[in-house]
Design brief:
Blueprint (H helix, E strand, L loop, with lengths): L10 H12 L3 H12 L6 H9 L17
């Protein structure tokens, strides 16, 4: 390893570290925002009813149903 070797830090990493230094609550705000959209409990009954009501899709959606004469 050379004597004057410095570990590489990308511009993006520097930007994110600077952003977090300016706004220390950023990560907490991100976690709160994530919990609004993704961290939810599923209603298992509604999910099973939804899956039971699915209709199978034909192989090519835009083709009209072929008649078997």
């Amino acid at each position: 390893m050379p004597l004057f070797w410095k570990p590489y830090k990308s511009e993006i990493t520097s930007f994110i570290e600077e952003l977090k230094a300016k706004n220390p609550q950023l990560e907490t705000q991100q976690r709160e925002g994530r919990s609004l959209l993704w961290d939810r409990n599923l209603d298992r009954q509604a999910q099973s009813e939804y899956e039971a009501g699915r209709v199978p899709q034909q192989p090519y959606v835009y083709q009209t149903k072929a008649s078997t004469d």
